[in-house]
Design brief:
Radius of gyration: 19 Å
Structural class: mainly beta
Strand order of the largest sheet: 1-4-5-6-7-8-9-12-13-14-15-18
Helix content: under 10%
Strand content: over 45%
Number of strands: 18
Number of helices: 1
Shape: globular
Distance between the termini: 19 Å
């Protein structure tokens, strides 16, 4: 998912009481969400060019720690849906999570990709790694996805700080961003983000004009590092 919110799960209490699900599913929960944001904010970027984003999800989780779901979103020139499955839990104050995410763009299948995501957290500090697997796109035009993205975050009460950085396979295309967030309520959140360092061909690294004979000819002074202010509202359904 390119945009994630912490969502409370909704237990199927009525179905359990009515005997409508199998005994082995009594510990299962299903939840859904809908939300809107003033932009499609993803890893320090506004990838909707200032246009608003509408998104939603449907999730299944089990008390064993297994979960799966689908997440969908609007974009300026396309749509997106992501399929994911994972396992998470805790040992005391140590939390862990391992998942697989399949990103799909029906109107731009060359951008389809998949990642394995591993996360560890302790005392409010969380380190997460996103490891590209498989290919970008499909068929003869597909290219290996060897990109990596890492985040280190800390949250306390309603406040959060996160540093995210890319380790791309392509040279001169990495950048690092800093996000500060505040959750006014369980539904309404604010984030301020800024790119704090960037290579010469970072951000718009798919722009052929930044490369000549495969070599970066961009200038990091031209990288869009304007301050971003993101407002998001999401609720359960």
């Amino acid at each position: 998912m390119k945009h994630a919110f912490g969502m409370k799960k909704t237990v199927l209490a009525a179905a359990v009481a009515a005997g409508m699900i199998m005994p082995g599913m009594a510990a299962a929960e299903i939840s859904g969400s809908l939300g809107i944001s003033n932009m499609y904010f993803w890893r320090g970027q506004d990838i909707s060019n200032g246009a608003a984003q509408v998104f939603g999800s449907l999730d299944y989780s089990h008390s064993s720690g297994l979960y799966a779901g689908v997440w969908g979103s609007s974009k300026t020139d396309s749509t997106e849906y992501d399929l994911y499955v994972g396992y998470g839990g805790a040992f005391g104050d140590l939390t862990y999570d391992l998942s697989y995410i399949d990103y799909n763009y029906p109107n731009d299948t060359d951008s389809d990709l998949a990642e394995i995501v591993a996360s560890l957290g302790y005392a409010g500090v969380t380190f997460t790694g996103y490891f590209g697997v498989g290919d970008y796109g499909h068929g003869s035009d597909a290219t290996d996805n060897k990109d990596r993205y890492y985040t280190l975050g800390y949250s306390y009460d309603k406040y959060g700080i996160l540093v995210g950085t890319w380790d791309n396979d392509a040279d001169d295309t990495n950048y690092t961003h800093l996000d500060l967030s505040y959750a006014l309520t369980d539904n309404l959140s604010f984030t301020v983000s800024k790119v704090i360092s960037a290579d010469d061909c970072a951000i718009n690294n798919n722009d052929d004009a930044l490369f000549m004979n495969g070599e970066c000819v961009g200038d990091k002074d031209d990288v869009d590092d304007d301050l971003l202010f993101v407002v998001s509202y999401a609720f359960e359904i």
